[in-house]
């Protein structure tokens, strides 16, 4: 990876290391949850279906649920948006999901490797005054080599999906950081 085209986001944090580390990761954790991850409330009984979800399942959940129950990975059953990779997959592959006993996984459809590291890097720095500074770097460049697709696999089923050179989820996460008061520095 190269720092050309990378964006760095900086924020001042607490003097306590553990609090600072938690605060740095929380913005990412919440952003991913809003895409539809970790939404099932396993504490609710099956007799309380309205309590099975803490909130609306979100686009990632809906796309994969549609594929498990159909042949398309779109935002709704009518398929207006066509096959669309779950956004969270743009943070790194493989990307597993769980739907009860069914476990779809998204991997690069490549001969040489089945992994693609996240282009998002977190770093916590301690300053001389004991204050901490959080740094989140979103690397520039292509997420996957040109022409490579992502394969969705679940049991014996598979589906290959195109991926943009630069997943939109990275720009969306950068916008979220700006909205939270992070200062952007472009490389």
Plain-language structure description:
It is a single chain. This protein is an alpha+beta fold and 187 residues long. 22% of the residues lie in helices and 22% in strands. It has three helices and eight strands. The strands form two sheets. The protein has a four-stranded antiparallel sheet. Strands 2-3-6-7 form a four-stranded antiparallel sheet, with no helix packed on it. A hairpin with a 5-residue loop joins strand 4 (120-126) and strand 5. The chain starts with 6 loop residues before the first strand and ends with a strand. The model has no long low-confidence stretch (mean pLDDT 82).
What oligomeric state is this? single chain
The count of β-strands is 8
Task: Report low-confidence residues grouped into runs of 5 or more.
Answer: none
Total count of helical runs of at least 4 residues: 3
Please indicate the percent range of residues in DSSP E strands (runs of 2 or more).
15-25%
| Distance N to C terminus | 13 Å
Shape: globular
Widest β-sheet, arrangement of strands: 4-5-1-8
Class based on secondary structure composition and strand pairing:
alpha+beta
Overall radius of gyration: 18 Å
Largest β sheet strand count, sense and barrel closure: 4 strands, antiparallel
What is the H/E order? EHHEEEEEEHE
């Amino acid at each position: 990876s190269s720092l050309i085209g990378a964006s760095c986001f900086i924020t001042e944090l607490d003097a306590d290391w553990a609090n600072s580390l938690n605060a740095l990761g929380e913005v990412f954790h919440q952003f991913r949850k809003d895409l539809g991850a970790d939404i099932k409330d396993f504490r609710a009984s099956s007799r309380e279906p309205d309590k099975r979800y803490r909130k609306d399942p979100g686009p990632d959940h809906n796309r994969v649920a549609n594929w498990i129950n159909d042949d398309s990975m779109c935002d709704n059953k009518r398929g207006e948006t066509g096959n669309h990779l779950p956004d969270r997959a743009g943070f790194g592959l493989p990307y597993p999901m769980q739907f009860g006993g069914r476990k779809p996984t998204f991997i690069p459809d490549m001969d040489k490797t089945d992994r693609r590291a996240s282009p998002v890097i977190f770093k916590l720095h301690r300053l001389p005054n004991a204050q901490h500074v959080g740094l989140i770097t979103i690397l520039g460049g292509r997420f996957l080599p040109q022409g490579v697709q992502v394969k969705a696999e679940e049991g014996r089923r598979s589906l290959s999906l195109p991926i943009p050179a630069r997943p939109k989820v990275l720009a969306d996460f950068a916008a979220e950081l700006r909205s939270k008061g992070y200062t952007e520095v472009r490389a």
